[in-house]
Amino acid sequence: MGLFQKLKEGLFKTQSKLAHEIKRIVTASPKLTSGGLDELEAALIAADLGLAMTAQIVAAVKHSYETQGRAGLDVFAIARAEVERSLAGAAGDLRRLPDGVTVVSLVGVNGTGKTTTAAKLAHLVQSRGQTALLAACDTFRAAAVEQLKLWGERLKVPVVAGARGADPASVAHDSIAAALARKSDYLFIDTAGRLHTKHNLMKELQKVHRVMDKKLPGAPHETLLVLDASTGMNALTQAREFNKSVPLTGLVITKLDGTSKGGMVIAIQRELGLPVKFIGVGEKPDDLQPFDAKQFAQALFDER
Amino acid sequence: MFDALSQRLQNAFRNLRGLGKISESNTADALREVRMALLEADVNFKVAKDFIEAVRVKALGEDVAQSIQPGQQIIKIIHDELVRLLGSANSGLALSGNPSCVILVGLHGSGKTTSCAKLGRLLHKQGRTPLLVAADVYRPAAMEQLETLGRQLELPVFARHGETDVLRIAREALDFARQINRNTLIFDTAGRLQIDEPLVRELARLRELVQPQEVLLVLDAATGQEAVNVATHFDQALHITGAILTKLDGDARGGAALSLRAVTGQPIKFAGVGEKLDEFEAFHPERMASRILGMGDVVSLVEKAAEAVDADDARRMEEKLRKGQFTLEDFLEQLRQMKKLGSLESLVSMLPGGAEMLKGADLSKQEKDFRRMEGIICAMTPQERRAPAILNAKRRIRIAKGSGVQVAEVNNLLNRFGQMQQMMKKMGKFQKMMGRMGGMPPMPRR
Lengths: 304, 446
What we know:
The structure holds 2 protein chains of 2 kinds.
Chain A: H1 3-27, H2 34-46, H3 51-65, H4 75-86, E1 102-107, H5 114-127, E2 132-137, H6 144-155, E3 159-161, H7 168-182, E4 186-191, H8 199-215, E5 222-228, H9 234-245, E6 250-254, H10 264-272, E7 276-280, E8 288-290, H11 293-300
Parallel strand pairs in A: 1-4, 1-5, 2-3, 2-4, 5-6, 6-7
Antiparallel strand pairs in A: 7-8
Chain B: H1 5-17, H2 24-40, H3 45-59, H4 62-66, H5 70-86, E1 100-106, H6 112-125, E2 130-135, H7 142-153, E3 157-158, H8 166-179, E4 184-189, H9 197-210, E5 214-220, H10 227-238, E6 242-246, H11 255-264, E7 268-272, E8 280-282, H12 285-292, H13 298-308, H14 311-323, H15 328-340, H16 344-349, H17 354-358, H18 363-378, H19 382-386, H20 393-403, H21 407-436
Parallel strand pairs in B: 1-4, 1-5, 2-3, 2-4, 5-6, 6-7
Antiparallel strand pairs in B: 7-8
Helix pairs in contact in B: 1-2, 1-5, 2-3, 3-5, 5-12, 6-7, 8-9, 10-11, 15-18, 18-20, 20-21
């Protein structure tokens, strides 16, 4: 290191800048006005992409815009492609074990829509001709068990539930036993909402998962983090912390039917590489859709 | 990459503190940091821009140029501006009229039902007679949830299972309140998107019917840029009179609070700070601003300590400390008191700079250490606790066995305790000395 290294680095920067500029002139690409970039930056931040992701995308867009030739696309089209590319491979379907019951655990902070998502998932696998069982392991929140039971009645899906205040791990244990006895294809575990900062509650969640694994080695086979699309930058922290406690296998983004864009998915995807398995777009049982990177990128820049 | 706002601002402030003279150029960098920090805390980008502009104008003003420490001055301006934006004084509910009505509105999962119960409890404590009204006719078991909470609080709940007409529920609830002499109705409504026209119109009709004194928007503290849209739409349709910020016990920096305040002009009146029904408090803009700025939440810490620690005990302890009579028994008592205050993590995060300190540190190990120490001391006889000097090898082996640790750990604890005692004695002497010199010098203002 030392002077030479520094000099070289400095020169490299100048060189690449120069090369970029020359390329731009040769291909006769239009020079970007700061107005267009500002507009793009505002759109990305407004979609909750966060600063780091926004800066990355803006830089990439700037680069390709100024080297693409005169007949190029507009800034937003490039940005859309950029987002789409960064989300490539982010979709994924629900896992299914070749035989036996597939256990899916739904985790997340309070009020993101875990119970509703559990019910929607049960409805989904039913519509595929498979059988489902629901487990009401949220024994803390008032009437959470009743909420899932009502869903069960509506969808004609059996629900295993414990009493309010019961040990969620024991409910999980019993539900696996029930799923095995009934030979269900899927078991969806609705856990209580918990803030990722609550050490004890995260420990409790780990215990629930440990007990499942004991009863049925390998369970849960899917651990889905349910995220509210209107959440801002905290979503990344949520994903990070939950992933630390119980290794996640995917995400479900709920409430995407509003004007929220759920842009934080991109940052999460970049850092943790978790596939987005489903998006929630309404209150009805079939308002659960597979994630589509292209559509998502499109929606990100809608009605800007 | 996504540092909390306080950490970012502290970085910015470190630069600001070093400033000799305020000029356009040397504040620009720092203010850019502040802007980025605000954005990462989910403050809406337009709100952040206005905020920075206001600070810039004030920072370049005359009074700053003449102050001795311009860096400190800017920090004060930022803090004051934040407090101003958050609402300068905490405002309660304006509940005149009999009965008074409060309607809670908001997105799905923001915490309306829980807040309804918590608010009911608070108003009941203030001497009002609340009736909780379950007007969420959509979410399955929403009514049961409110009923369960009402039972826990021993507050009446009005619910009509199967009824889907919110207005009919409201009319009957008003009659019912009159019958059983309740003077405050709190309506728990269904979560809805701010752009869902028919559902928002339903709320508007409810507002028309019950003529509420307060319409409170319930907002999740972790809400992102969307907070501005949500607040604007609900405000336009329903003229909200204030807001409740929920889930503030998480680690979201709550930039949504700033956005909400800025676009509606209405104050945030309450904050939900936990899952338990008493974890609900008046919103303090001053504290929130300090917390956001990483100046710590010393006020809350002191309040928490005051709740957990008996004043007489504290005085006795102080006396002992001064005289250097601190024994293992007192140490044990202290350990237990600390536990009552909550997790170390939450305590440290309330200290100035605490959030930064906590980064990457796993305090659960320290907490475990504390528990072990407690175990070791508990394995001692009262006599040993009072006079640790009598602890010979044989006794130490017994204690180690009794508490299931290695003898080395017992030795370690005793060594640390010895060091602590020495320090306490010195501090006692120092305090006496300072006392003679006319008290401690005042702490420098931050």
